[in-house]
Design a protein that fits this description.
This is Methionine ABC transporter substrate-binding protein. Its main location: membrane. It comes from Leuconostoc kimchii. It is a lipid-anchor. Keywords: Lipoprotein, Membrane, Palmitate, Signal. The protein is α/β, with parallel strands linked by helices and 282 residues long. The protein has two domains: 36-117 and 232-273, D-Maltodextrin-Binding Protein, domain 2; 120-223, Periplasmic binding protein-like II (D-Maltodextrin-Binding Protein, domain 2), CATH 3.40.190.10. It is built from ten helices and 13 strands. The chain has helices at 3-25, 27-31, 46-61, 76-83, 94-104, 144-156, 191-194, 205-210, 245-254, 257-265; strands at residues 35-42, 64-71, 88-93, 108-117, 120-122, 137-141, 161-162, 174-176, 182-186, 200-202, 220-221, 232-238, 271-273. The strands form three sheets. A six-stranded mixed sheet has the order 2-1-3-12-4-13, sandwiched between helices. A five-stranded mixed sheet has the order 9-6-10-5-11. Helix 3 packs across helix 9 (245-254). The radius of gyration is 25 Å and the shape is globular.
Length: 282
């Protein structure tokens, strides 16, 4: 073999090795570096599990592994975020986060919108809001994160008026109650059970579906408009993590068309994907 031939073969080999090295350690790998993010959510059901499977697959394509940590108390996910036990959470709306930051002097910030739970009112006794009687009994949640939303739905239906000085009202903030409605405050998971006994109830869609009822049985559905913005659920993290690549990948994985399609058309929970660019409900 001539020296020229040997030189050519050696040169080709060097180029090939360099190409392999570039493919292994070049920009593509850097752009898809593997990261892990722990996300806190409230414990759900099979529908929730399926939604997070889709989100986790989306994240995996971006080189992000999502670890999901579930909680059973609404005070836990933000506390875990502040302490560093989780890197982000997805369970609360704007109003709840604002109140939390004020009362806990925390630096939690929203980084992406997710869903809106359209407020609904149910009754086994009456077919229309206008039929709710004087002194009627209304059951609502005793949980801070859901009671304010329920009262806003009742105001939207024209049954009560609330103080315009508060964004997350309680029963004490009712300023007008012409029908003298009597409020029965109960644990959120007990509201469905009260339907045969009360005139009206504000119940989260997940509990309606879980009881075998249809969300379409509601006698009133709150319109989605500017007044409902505070009730939009969000992805949240701390200020020092909001610009991290892992958090950005998580937001992208959640705000995907396949996730919106599942939420709007397959979950059966009455939730609506509301982030900018989300496909409209079919």
């Amino acid at each position: 073999m001539s020296k020229t031939t040997k030189w050519l073969i050696g040169g080709v080999a060097i180029v090939a090795i360099a190409g392999i090295a570039y493919a292994s350690f070049g920009p593509n790998t850097v752009g898809k570096k593997k990261e892990t993010l722990t996300v806190g959510i409230m414990a759900g059901d099979k529908r929730t599990d399926e939604q997070w499977k889709i989100i986790k697959r989306n994240a995996q394509k971006e080189g992000l592994t999502l670890k999901i940590k579930t909680f059973t108390d609404y005070t836990q996910p933000n506390a875990a975020l502040s302490s560093g036990d989780v890197d982000a959470n997805a369970f609360q709306h704007y109003i709840f986060l604002s109140d939390w930051n004020k009362s806990h002097k925390s630096n939690i910030v929203p980084v992406g919108e997710t869903i809106l739970v359209a407020g609904r009112l149910y009754s086994d006794k009456h077919k229309a809001i206008k039929n709710i009687p004087q002194n009627g009994i209304v059951s609502i949640s005793n949980s801070k994160i859901t009671q304010g939303r329920s009262l806003l739905v009742l105001q939207s239906a024209g049954l009560i008026k609330l103080s315009d000085k508060v964004k997350d009202p309680t029963i004490k903030d009712i300023t007008e109650n012409k029908k003298n409605l009597q409020f029965k405050q109960l644990a959120t998971d007990q509201l469905v059970r009260t339907l045969p006994e009360v005139d009206l109830s504000s119940i989260d869609p997940s509990f309606i579906v879980g009881s075998g009822r249809s969300i379409k049985s509601a006698i009133y559905v709150q319109p989605v408009d500017k007044s409902t913005h505070g009730g939009i659920n969000i992805i949240a993290t701390t200020k020092n993590k909001k610009n991290s690549s892992a958090v950005k990948k998580f937001v992208k994985a959640y705000q995907s068309n396949n996730v919106a399609n599942y939420i709007d058309n397959k979950s059966g929970t009455g939730e609506i994907a509301v982030w900018q660019g989300a496909p409209k409900v079919r």
